[in-house]
Amino acid sequence: MSISYLWSRSFLCNRKFLWLLFICNVIGTIYGYIWYGNQMAYTLENYASWLIVFVPDSPTASLFFTIGIGCLLYKPRSMWGNQIRYLFESLAVVTSVKYGLWASSMIFAGQYQGDVLQWQDWMLVVSHTAMVIEALLYVRFFGFNTSVLIGAAAWTLLNDFIDYSYGIYPWLPSVLSDNLTAVQNFTIGLTIFSVIVSWITLRLARRDTRRA
């Protein structure tokens, strides 16, 4: 099986492969929400209940991507359905790139400062790297445009603001507790970076599609 075939629409958009990817992401999303279970329970006990929406960052990104794949399997037929689809697709790409990179960065930053990595950490690195790869692979098959991407950027920046204003950011390795300002700045910068990468990838994908 050639690399060009693995990159092709005929492989990536094959319904059997899409269903496999959909199921894997459903499982990963459910596991992600379970992983955040303790922090979600803590948030409900100690903060306003509406903040719970902003706690599970990575599994919500995975949920967005799962919806995006679902829309490739069963495309909406109405104009409003497609607009909602485009929003989820843009959120899927931006947040998958952002939180995929963020989680791995925090794990390795913790290791740099003396944290001992466990097998769960390596599992998270692999799964979050996969989030980035799949988002950038499928951006060319998603239908969103630049204007919708701006909405996704606004939501992700809002999430950053809520996380660090209310103190509900993902729990960090203990060795990073003294570096919260640096983590906050890195997080916001990574959001901007992810939006730019998503926009560039989208433009390149559309250019290649026109040439094909």
Automatic annotation (TrEMBL):
Keywords: Membrane, Transmembrane, Transmembrane helix
Transmembrane segments: 17-36, 48-74, 186-205
One of the Pfam families matching this protein, by short name: DUF1405
Protein name in the entry: Uncharacterized membrane protein YpjA
